[in-house]
Design a protein that fits this description.
- 25% of the residues are buried.
- The strands form nine sheets. This protein has an 18-stranded mixed sheet that branches.
- 17% of the residues lie in helices and 36% in strands.
Length: 532
């Protein structure tokens, strides 16, 4: 009986196979540890035996693994030669041996892996059954046969081979050829050094989240670092391991462009800083710093409440329940509805101001609007309304004017320091309309605060007086010097301390009263009141 005795695993047809572990994860592993062979190593031989069991008696020394093939029509394929003297098939070099079932050829797979861009080549190694690895000369010969030109230096390859531990057989990849990597080009771009993301909301003390507080305005200080510059890179073609040109790519980086008011820093040319106080403005891929904040839409849950150390321009409306605070001016292109606006400068609402009980505007400058309805508006300077003021409380420390020919004030309370100008004021059988000229709400508030302070100090004086009378009686105030002279030293000391405290608070009370008189003098302007 003629058989083929094979010293490799004939069941495999590839060097590597994909396996799935218990977790369902796929990995690529070596298909067989028995198929790596070295030059002149016996791969298979034809034998004649009466019983297949007798095949084991003809196994060559040192060959522990074997497979018996009952169809011995083997042929020598690539990398394999037939030795007629010993009737064996042998390897002509280092590689991974397989049996091609279609052609019945025993052939070697050259263990060379080439990168997709053909710029690098690797030689896959695994110790043979005789613990052999390829030599540099074997690798060089294989690469030359494949017409690979960019072979690495002998020292570099041999250094990698020397680090392979034969005591722990495993697959290794040795880099054996390397061309010149192409350099990918791109234009100059910038990466932000400040966070661009809005917060989801502000966590309150009780654990709830205020979704109106999302810090959508990113305040910037002059000199603050904003961007880091990534210099442009010129594309350079490379060369693959065959000596062919590898075209360089040009990509568009996911970065930003530099906008207004961002300049190069003094100490580092790659760092760019703001040259003004303002807020960060991101338009597409351009980052700039603006001296005023622009809300591109409504003030709502998307923008959150606005609090900015400058001027604010809202391109939409301010929706109910939201607030806008600015150290500069506030401009609203549409409406303000049941919201809160506070500006140290002017407030301009191009459409109207209306509320349902919570609408309030406080301005350190002027207020301008088309109409005011069911709202509270206070301004240090002029309040100018085009059409009407209806059922509102409006105060100006300067003047209030309704400019339209049929402009009217109906209901509410209107107070101006200097004058009120309107064509129609009040309507019979409607809500009471109160107009007052010559009164300063700010002075009134200052006076209220002073009176509150006077009452507070008076309470302290009364308490000190109560303690003194309780401790020393009424006689102290009839003749203080005589009374103190007969007191024991300790009581005398305590009494003096109380009297000093009383004197200090009475002095404070006198100074506050003096201030009250000065403020009250400001109110001695003629006040004109009118109601309808």
């Amino acid at each position: 009986m003629k058989l083929a005795l094979c010293y490799f695993d004939t069941a495999v047809s590839r060097m590597f196979v994909e396996k799935t572990d218990e977790k369902g994860e796929k990995t690529v592993v070596l298909s067989s540890p028995h198929n790596f062979v070295y030059r002149d190593e016996i791969l298979a031989k034809i034998i004649n035996v009466e019983d297949p069991v007798d095949a084991e008696l003809q196994i060559d020394k040192g060959y522990s693994f074997h497979v018996v093939e009952k169809n011995p029509n083997l042929k020598a394929g690539e990398g394999v030669y037939y030795d007629q003297f010993s009737s064996t098939y042998k390897a002509s070099g280092y590689g991974f041996v397989i049996l091609d079932r279609v052609t019945q050829k025993v052939r070697l797979i050259t263990p060379v892996q080439i990168s997709k861009d053909k710029v690098r080549a690797y030689f896959v190694t695994f110790p043979t059954k005789f613990m052999k690895l390829p030599l540099y000369s074997d690798i060089e010969h294989t690469l030359q046969e494949k017409k690979i030109l960019a072979i690495m230096d002998k020292e570099a390859i041999e250094e990698q081979l020397s680090k392979i531990d034969l005591g722990e057989p495993r697959v290794n990849r040795v880099m054996v050829a390397r061309g010149r990597e192409p350099v990918t080009g791109y234009d100059e771009y910038f990466v932000p050094l400040v966070k661009l993301e809005k917060k989801a909301g502000k966590v309150l003390e009780d654990g709830r989240i205020d979704f109106k507080e999302i810090d959508s305005i990113i305040e910037i200080k002059r000199g603050q670092e904003i961007l880091r510059k990534i210099p442009a890179v010129k594309p350079e073609d490379g060369m693959d391991i065959y000596g062919e040109k590898v075209d360089a790519a040009f990509v568009v980086k996911e970065g930003y462009n530099k906008g207004e008011h961002i300049v190069e820093s003094m100490g580092d040319s790659s760092i760019f800083v703001s040259d003004i106080d303002g807020c960060l403005n991101v338009e597409g891929k351009k980052i700039s710093v603006s001296p005023f904040a622009i809300i591109k839409g409504n003030v709502d849950y998307d923008s959150g409440n606005i609090d900015f150390n400058g001027s604010v321009h809202v391109l939409g409306s301010v929706l109910p329940g939201f607030s806008v605070k600015a150290k500069g001016d506030i401009i609203v292109d549409k409406n303000v509805d049941d919201a809160y606006l506070e500006a140290e400068g002017d407030v301009t609402v191009k459409h109207g101001i209306s509320g349902k009980g919570s609408m309030k505007i406080v301005a350190g400058g002027r207020v301008r609007s088309k109409y005011i309805l069911n709202s509270t508006v206070e301004a240090v300077k002029e309040i100018e309304v085009e059409d009407s003021i209806i059922n509102s409380k409006v105060f100006s420390n300067d003047r209030i004017s309704v400019t339209a020919r049929n402009g009217k004030i109906i209901g509410g309370e209107i107070i101006a320091r200097h004058e009120i100008v309107v064509n129609v004021a009040g309507v019979p059988k409607e809500n009471l309309t109160k107009l007052t000229v010559g009164e300063s709400l700010f002075v009134e508030r200052e006076l209220i605060e002073i009176r509150r302070e006077i009452d507070s100090v008076k309470l302290v004086v009364q308490e000190i007086m109560r303690k003194i009378k309780a401790s020393f009686g009424e006689g102290l105030f009839e003749d203080p010097k005589k009374f103190l002279s007969i007191l024991p030293p300790v009581k005398k000391k305590n009494c003096l301390l109380m009297l000093q405290e009383l004197t200090a608070h009475n002095k404070e009370l006198g100074e506050i009263n003096k201030k009250r008189v000065e403020v009250e003098a400001k109110l001695k302007l003629s006040v004109i009141r009118w109601s309808s």
